Amino acid sequence: MIQILLVDDQYIIRQGLKTMLESNPDMQVIGEAENGQRAIEQIPLLQPDIVLMDIRMPIMDGVAATGAIAQLYPDLKILILTTFDDDDYVSKAMRLGAKGYLLKDTEPDELAMAIRAVIKGHTQLGPGLFEKAIANTSSPTISPPSELAQLTPRELEVLKLIAAGSNNREIAEVLFLSENTVKNYVTNILSRLNLRDRTQAALFAHSLFHDHNLDSD
Question: Global pTM?
Answer without folding.
Answer: 0.62
